[in-house]
Amino acid sequence: MALYVTTFILGPLENNTYLLADPETKKAVVIDPSFDSERVLETIDRLKFELTEIWLTHAHFDHLAGATIAYRFTPPLKTGLHPDDLPLWKQAGGAVNWGIHVEPGPEPEILFCHGQKIRLGNSIIEVRHVPGHTPGHVMFYLPTEKLAFVGDVIFYRGIGRTDLPGGNFKQLINSIQTQIFTLPPDTTLLSGHGPETTVAEERANNPFLR
Ligand SMILES: [Zn+2]
Ligand SMILES: [Zn+2]
């Protein structure tokens, strides 16, 4: 049975927060909980899912501003992050540079690594390290669902910015070429902001990658 995926557009930067759940076991994870993630909890309650973990594609504040939902559970939910983004996480994702205060939630206990395989229900999710927007950015690839959660690496006709601390343009382009454009062309890409797209669409029409 296919995984249940729903998108919430949250916060002033219009972040896409994703709820991913296995309809059989009811186990669910939240990817990049942004501001007002209480809305995600309401949906989880209504559908009687069991939230097990929080996964961060990277540690920018707008992708973790809702991670405090972890404290609604006993014990608090575990958060997953690539270790190369821990320094950024410790600075609350750079929130202070934007003049706002963000409480980043529990310190990540699940440390993602490239090639790691995670099971959710009957689906296998592959972690890929895709640095460039931040040093520890990861994506989550679901081959059976032809789906990839790509955070701020690539957007519909756009790419992630590389002018923030830890950004690297060459690395970002390399991550896209080697980890995203090598996926099957009909793979759907779910980004951290904006509409969904596909590998084929971005290979053909992304103005930054020609
Ligand atoms: Zn970002
Ligand atoms: Zn973002």
Q: Provide the helix percentage.
A: 10-25%
Work out the radius of gyration: 16 Å
- Secondary structure tally, helices: 5
CA-CA gap between termini: 37 Å
Report the uncertain regions.
none
CATH top level class name: Alpha Beta
Strand runs, count: 14
The helix/strand order is EEEHEHEHEEEEEEEHEEH
Mean pLDDT: 96
Sheet with most strands: strand arrangement: 1-2-3-4-5-6
Report the CATH architecture.
4-Layer Sandwich
Bound molecules: zinc ion
Short structural description:
With 210 residues, the chain is an alpha/beta fold. 18% of the residues lie in helices and 30% in strands.
How would you summarize the topology of this molecule?
Layout lengths: L3 E7 L4 E7 L5 E5 L6 H10 L2 E6 L5 H4 L13 E4 L4 H5 L19 E2 L5 E4 L2 E7 L8 E5 L4 E5 L2 E2 L2 E2 L9 H12 L7 E4 L5 E2 H7 L5
Parallel strand pairs: 3-4, 4-5, 5-6, 10-13
Antiparallel strand pairs: 1-2, 2-3, 7-8, 8-9, 9-10, 11-12, 13-14
